[in-house]
Write a structure and sequence with these properties.
The protein has about 200 residues and is α/β, with parallel strands linked by helices. The chain is built from 7 helices and 5 strands.
């Protein structure tokens, strides 16, 4: 006869169970890594893998754990993020082909991350980093708000080319919107001497 044990009610001495209050974007795949993947993880993770403060789960990202992208890569360059990088074939090839661009692979499959690190090392790729975490939490908590000049220039070009919109400001940039609160990211950018850009367009 098979006996099943059913847990009783949580007492004051026991911590209450904790659950995510938001959905995750994946079903985590587990499994044994090969000897080569184990070696790659042990030897290369310090170089390629971003350390992530955790919240509830092993692949969560704690609030307030933002990284300085320029510090991670040692330079200021465009950043491409691949969500669900798998074995890393696409992002390793892209990083090797575009040394002027920084790449970040987001994946929860540990063996896939190990394979990515191994292939990046064999290809001599230095502009790639990896993060083992749930993608929405990476985008919400880990990466900073955008304050790069290149992004502002690109968005201005896109909006200028959109036939349904017209500039609602004279000159190069719109004046700062008075209703926008001064965020911590904006204060940080100003403190570092970065220019904060505003755009305003009117739908025609």
């Amino acid at each position: 006869m098979t006996r099943r044990r059913y847990p009783g009610p949580v007492t004051d001495d026991e911590p209450a169970p904790r659950f995510r209050d938001h959905p995750v974007s994946f079903v985590r795949r587990s499994g044994r890594m090969s000897d080569g993947q184990e070696r790659a993880w042990a030897e290369l993770s310090a170089r390629y893998l971003l350390p992530v403060p955790r919240d509830l789960a092993a692949t969560s990202v704690a609030h307030g754990s933002q990284v300085e992208v320029a510090t991670v890569y040692g330079r200021s360059a465009p950043l491409v993020v691949e969500v669900g990088s798998g074995q890393g074939h696409a992002i390793v090839h892209a990083a090797a082909s575009r040394p002027d661009v920084d790449f970040l692979a987001v994946e929860v499959f540990k063996a896939g991350l190990a394979r990515t690190m191994r292939d990046a090392d064999l290809a001599g790729v230095g502009n790639l980093r990896l993060v083992e975490a749930n993608a929405p939490e990476v985008l919400e908590h880990l990466l900073p708000a955008t304050d790069w000049e290149d992004y502002a220039l690109q968005m201005r070009d896109v909006m200028d080319a959109a036939p349904a919109f017209a500039r609602a400001f004279p000159g190069e940039w719109a004046p700062r919107f008075e209703g926008r609160v001064l965020t911590a990211f904006e204060r940080k950018g100003v403190a570092k001497g970065r220019s904060i850009r505003d755009l305003a367009y009117r739908r025609e």
